[in-house]
Amino acid sequence: MLTTKQRAFLRGLGNALEPVAQIGKEGITDNVLESIKLLLEARELVKVKVLKNSGEDCRNIAEEVASSLSADVVQVIGSIFILYKKTTRKNFKHIELP
After folding, report:
1. At a CB cut-off of 8 Å and minimum separation 6, what does 87 contact?
2. Less CB within 10 Å around the terminal CB: N or C of the chain?
3. How large is the C-alpha radius of gyration of the chain?
4. Cβ–Cβ under 8 Å, residues 62 and 81
5. Average pLDDT for the chain
6. What's the whole-model pTM score?
7. Are 86 and 15 in contact (CB under 8 A)?
């Protein structure tokens, strides 16, 4: 669970990111979850775009993906959300949370 200060710090980092994953009309599939999991392992902070044809609320999708991957929802704005999960990789420059 992130504190308000940590969430604000991660939001600032997330502003510069481009969405690297999309959730479309098929919704949350195993392939989508696996790709987001791999992205989180590689980057720790990931921005995801929910397409309009998905038919679901972006906040609900963000919460569902986060709970499936044991990640934290940093921010949800419109159709974009940001997830954070500390990576288990060694020799990786981790995001230092305040």
Report:
1. 40, 41, 42, 43, 44, 94
2. N
3. 13
4. yes
5. 93
6. 0.91
7. no
